[in-house]
Amino acid sequence: AARGAKRARPREKPQQIADELRRQIVAGKLSEGDSLGSEPALIERFGVSRPSIREALRILEAEGLISVVRGMLGGVVVHEPDHRMTARTAATVLQARNVPLADVYEARALIEPVAVHVVASLRSRRAPVATLRTLVKEQQRLIEEREAFAPANARFHEMLVALAGNRTLGIVAEMLNEVVERAVAAISRAALTPDSVADRRRALRSQERLLSLIEAGQAIEAEEHWRAHMAVVGRMLLGKVAGSTVIDLT
Question: pTM (2 decimals)?
Answer without folding.
Answer: 0.72
